[in-house]
Amino acid sequence: MFVERKVKDFINIDPLQTGGKLTEDARRMLVEWGDGYSVCDFCMGDLHGIKNPPIADFIKDLAEFLGCDVARVTHGAREGKFMIMHSLAKKDGIVVVDSNAHYSTFVSAERAGLNVVEVENSGYPEYKVIEERYEDAIVEARRKGDVVLAVLTYPDGNYGNLPDVKAVAEICHDKGVPLLLNCAYSIGRMEIKAEKLGVDFVVGSGHKSMASAGPIGVVGMFEDYAKVVLRKSERFKNKEVELLGCSVRGVPLMTLMASFDHVKERVKRWNEEVEKARWFVREFESLGFELLGEKPHNHDLLHFKTDKIYEISKKVKKGGYFLYHELKKRNIHGIKPGRTKSIKLSTYLVPKDDLRKVVQAFEEILDKYG
């Protein structure tokens, strides 16, 4: 059954989608490599060793791109987090996590049998990670058990905050704790080099930030930890246990590879994206909305407190869904249906003229229901 995506030509400001739009090369890959296990035609036992198509070369380039020794592809950033946690887990082990972390970080820890100690953020309105609190959290956690890992979200998917990674890494390493950086909304948008940042692991999302069809993720690490995380099966000598022998294959991988050169180039223009996001913040706040998250903002993911929209929703027939329908009339997609108290959006790769139309749309809606 064919299902048409009726919003494909709309202005798309969905934070989950702006960084995952396919390149033209990737779109061609959808057809060329769409048949089932097509990439496995020449597999000799390990996916990352396949030379035709050139997956082995891509994996080496990916490790260099991530600034680490070893890279792998996974079925998503969450699978990367889980495989690292699971391989490091101990009985009564603990992972220290920032409170802005994605729910999948907590679920990964739970699945791996780990307890979680949270590093609380600064609260309203910026919700910033207080880097120094990692030290207190590790000390507190060690009263309860063995801290096997710390996680920092960069940026978080709720507010788009970018904490000081190097400061957290220094604290963690002084305490003898490895640090995992969750870069689902940064790898593929901005430069992320694990070695420069001083982190032990990085995970990213191909379908959120690397112009891939997905679902697909990337994970990078250094040799010392690769011996543990990428350990081989005793029975099947070329199969890595945490990847269940093979990771993602087919269209997700081939579209990621097809977009890779484009992605490597676009990270060089990250400063332009930040300036555009800040421009949008100024325009949107002029309508009476309030940005939640750090200021000045350093990422395209934006979260606004929209009291004026919420007040309208309490009076109109469609309630909280009125905003979704008003935006749909104006060919704008990406604001979650039913949300009015606050809204999340992304300006990444959205042309400035289109963003002007978004601002104008909200201005019209406020005037209409004023």
TrEMBL record:
<feature type="binding site">
    <location>
        <begin position="205"/>
        <end position="207"/>
    </location>
    <ligand>
        <name>pyridoxal 5'-phosphate</name>
    </ligand>
</feature>
<comment type="similarity">
    <text>Belongs to the SepCysS family.</text>
</comment>
<dbReference type="GO" id="GO:0043766">
    <property type="term" value="F:Sep-tRNA:Cys-tRNA synthase activity"/>
</dbReference>
<keyword id="KW-0648">Protein biosynthesis</keyword>
<dbReference type="InterPro" id="IPR015422">
    <property type="entry name" value="PyrdxlP-dep_Trfase_small"/>
</dbReference>
<dbReference type="GO" id="GO:0006412">
    <property type="term" value="P:translation"/>
</dbReference>
<dbReference type="InterPro" id="IPR008829">
    <property type="entry name" value="SepSecS/SepCysS"/>
</dbReference>
<dbReference type="InterPro" id="IPR013375">
    <property type="entry name" value="Sep_Cys-tRNA_synth_arc"/>
</dbReference>
<keyword id="KW-0663">Pyridoxal phosphate</keyword>
<keyword id="KW-0808">Transferase</keyword>
<comment type="function">
    <text>Converts O-phospho-L-seryl-tRNA(Cys) (Sep-tRNA(Cys)) to L-cysteinyl-tRNA(Cys) (Cys-tRNA(Cys)).</text>
</comment>
<comment type="subunit">
    <text>Homodimer. Interacts with SepRS.</text>
</comment>
<dbReference type="InterPro" id="IPR015421">
    <property type="entry name" value="PyrdxlP-dep_Trfase_major"/>
</dbReference>
<feature type="binding site">
    <location>
        <position position="182"/>
    </location>
    <ligand>
        <name>pyridoxal 5'-phosphate</name>
    </ligand>
</feature>
<dbReference type="Pfam" id="PF05889">
    <property type="entry name" value="SepSecS"/>
</dbReference>
<feature type="modified residue" description="N6-(pyridoxal phosphate)lysine">
    <location>
        <position position="208"/>
    </location>
</feature>
<feature type="binding site">
    <location>
        <begin position="77"/>
        <end position="78"/>
    </location>
    <ligand>
        <name>pyridoxal 5'-phosphate</name>
    </ligand>
</feature>
<protein>
    <recommendedName>
        <fullName>O-phospho-L-seryl-tRNA:Cys-tRNA synthase</fullName>
        <ecNumber>2.5.1.73</ecNumber>
    </recommendedName>
</protein>
<dbReference type="InterPro" id="IPR015424">
    <property type="entry name" value="PyrdxlP-dep_Trfase"/>
</dbReference>
